[in-house]
């Protein structure tokens, strides 16, 4: 079942000017409820434009965006309500922090939702826990935190709204490997515990392989591929033809198969290839 759908969606920047550029062309995509869907493509392929359309920051020039079967632009005056249901974390969200304390920054959207103080407190604590922050940081200024901590505060502010769909545009960009893993691991835990629908925009094929159930590939503003992670990464030649790649571990698995090693399973993650090799040799994983 799809919670979000795009039907024949197109968007143009600079229409009726010499600088006209088609950002999205006749896009048809469904985002499955309770799954993490990765959105990949080169810079300029339309990923960020699409992400901003999903919660109504940008209105398509043609086509429809459906949330639970209803066009989000059917009642333009209620588009604010859509933004509470489809939470968007934009690139480098820490630049959007502004309040005096971590606690008040996370609670900003909740106050706009006109929730009670007790509900705001409960949701703030829950969001802080999900993103892996300590409550000891509550009264600190967000500007005193590290880059990774700021990123978590920004994500917590969206998670606290308990949106039906969580859209994240490059949430781990610019972080060191440890910070990247922590952010994405917490998102995976959040998705599993809440049965949430998550849409993750990233340039990293490894991120797609390790954290996504499904993948959508954009190329030159058009839909190129969509399917399960395994399905998409099985099209290595097609991805290569448009300048994209598959995870390094998938390359290794492919080389082994070409040498006659009969590997089977999810051959696009390190854990998947490890299990396939152990199964082949009849070995057991050491505790």
Unreliable residue runs: none
Summed over residues and divided by their number, the pLDDT gives a mean of 90
Order of helices and strands: EEEHEEHEHHHHEHEHEEHHHH
Could you say which overall geometry the principal axes of the C-alpha atoms support?
A: globular
Radius of gyration: 20 Å
Whole-Å distance between the termini? 38 Å
What is shown here, in short?
The chain is of the alpha/beta class. Helices cover about 40% and strands about 20% of the residues.
List keywords for this structure.
alpha/beta, six-stranded mixed sheet, four-stranded antiparallel sheet, 12 helices, globular
Please characterize this protein's 3D structure.
The protein is of the alpha/beta class. Helices cover 39% and strands 22% of the residues. The chain contains twelve helices and ten strands. It has helices at 47-53, 79-85, 102-106, 108-112, 117-131, 147-159, 177-194, 205-211, 229-233, 236-241, 248-258, 270-281; strands at residues 2-13, 21-32, 36-40, 62-67, 70-71, 86-89, 165-169, 197-201, 214-219, 222-228. The protein has a six-stranded mixed beta sheet with strand order 6-7-8-3-9-10, with helices on both faces. It has a four-stranded antiparallel beta sheet with strand order 2-1-4-5, with helices on one face. A hairpin with a 2-residue loop joins β4 and β5. α5 packs across α6. The longest helix has 18 residues, at 177-194.
């Amino acid at each position: 079942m799809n919670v979000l759908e795009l039907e024949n969606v197109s968007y143009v920047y600079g229409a009726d000017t010499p600088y006209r550029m088609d950002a999205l062309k006749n896009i048809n995509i469904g985002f499955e409820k309770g799954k993490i869907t990765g959105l990949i493509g080169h810079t300029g392929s339309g990923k960020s434009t699409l992400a901003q359309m999903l919660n109504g920051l940008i209105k398509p020039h043609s086509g429809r965006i459906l949330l639970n079967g209803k066009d989000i632009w059917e009642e333009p005056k209620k588009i604010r309500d859509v933004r509470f249901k489809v939470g968007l974390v934009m690139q480098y969200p820490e630049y959007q922090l502004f309040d005096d304390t971590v606690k008040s920054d996370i609670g900003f959207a909740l106050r706009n939702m006109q929730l009670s103080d007790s509900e705001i407190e409960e949701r703030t604590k829950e969001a802080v826990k999900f993103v892996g922050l300590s409550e000891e940081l509550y009264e600190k200024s967000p500007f005193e935190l590290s880059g990774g901590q700021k990123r978590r505060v920004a994500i917590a502010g969206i998670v606290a709204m308990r949106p039906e769909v969580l859209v994240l545009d490059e949430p781990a960009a610019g972080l060191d490997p440890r910070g990247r893993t922590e952010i994405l691991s917490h998102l995976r835990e959040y998705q599993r515990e809440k049965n949430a629908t998550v849409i993750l925009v990233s340039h990293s094929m490894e991120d797609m392989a390790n954290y996504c159930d499904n993948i959508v590939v954009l190329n030159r503003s058009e839909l190129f591929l969509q399917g399960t992670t395994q399905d998409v990464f099985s099209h290595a030649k097609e991805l290569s033809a448009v300048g994209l790649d598959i995870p390094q571990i998938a390359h290794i698995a492919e080389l082994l198969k070409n040498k006659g090693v009969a590997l089977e399973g999810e051959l696009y993650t390190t854990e998947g290839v490890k299990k396939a090799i152990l199964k082949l040799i009849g070995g057991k994983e050491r505790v």
